[in-house]
Amino acid sequence: MIRRVLVVGAALLFLTSAGFSQEGKFNISASGGAAFSKQTTGNGVVLTPTQNAAVVASLGMRLSSATALQLNFGHVDNSQKYAAGGLDFRVMTTVTEFSGAFVVTPIRKERYRAFVFGGAGALVFNPNQTRIDDIPQFIGADRQTRVGVLYGAGVDYGLISHLSLRLQYRGLFYSPPDFKVANLFTGGRGHMAEPAVGLVFSF
Asked: Less Cβ crowding at N or C end of the chain, within 10 Å?
């Protein structure tokens, strides 16, 4: 009986460790973290986005042992706060990311996989409610899509066969939204930083 238990235990240990070395053609991941957007100034307008939680889901396809393609869907709710013409404008916004990236994994050691990535996509800014000096008012804000440049890096740590913990940093450069309202245009460059943690399943 003891011998059988030892044999089964050894077999499970072997299969689990083998699972870390076997990478599937595809992987899916879900991560949560925070979105930190920088202040942008221009044309007499100061834009200060609020900071909030963010989520991102990704689908990856491995091209080789060290390269992959990845599609991303991200979501964050925040407020775009503008100081313009002596007034304070606040646009409560849903930001949705659709992006693709090329991923390179230069470091691969046992359970660890360190990676870097770069790509591009679209950020869709959808206004939900607008205020002027904290009073709800209609200002004609319209949904707006901006091109985003994506970059980042991270590490995957194998937990069990085909399941890993992911720690990553994502950065997005983009043109800040003005929601097609002339006096909210900054003409500057926005940046959103997203540290995140999540799980990855490969198959």
From this structure: N
